[in-house]
Amino acid sequence: MKSTFTFATALCLTSLLWSASTWSMTLQEAKAARIVGEQPNGYLGLIIDTPEAKQLVLSVNAKRKYYYQSIAKRHSVSIDEVATLAAQKAIEAAEPGHMIQTPQGQWLKK
């Protein structure tokens, strides 16, 4: 009985995780759909405001900030310097059709 319950629980959890991942959007999917784009400050910007897109932007930007802080500390530079350099690289690496934001705040398709 206990093993049946454990198996059923594991199956339910696996199903739940699988269904959650099918509903979640990847960064590349969001960029291709022009829901998010690269900003000149080194962070991801929200173009179409949906709860799922907002969560993605918050998650990606938190990770970016962590890495920018780590790099800034290691090289004794400001986080803004690291973020600006990262923005330049991300904008250069953006695929055609992805959205990039100008320094004036306008979204353009690359």
Structure description:
- With 110 residues, this protein is of the alpha+beta class.
- Helices cover 62% and strands 11% of the residues.
- It has a 4-stranded mixed sheet.
- Strand 3 (99-101) and strand 4 (107-109) form a beta hairpin.
- The longest helix is centred in the middle third of the chain and has 25 residues, at 51-75.
- The model is unreliable at 2-23 (pLDDT under 50).
Count the E strands: 4
Runs with pLDDT <50, length 5+?
2-23
Alpha-beta content class: alpha+beta
Number of helices: 4
Tertiary shape: globular
Distance between the termini: 59 Å
Q: How can the largest sheet be summarized?
A: 4 strands, mixed
N-to-C order of helices and strands: HHEEHHEE
Provide the helix percentage: 55-70%
What's the arrangement of strands in the largest beta sheet?
A: 2-1-3-4
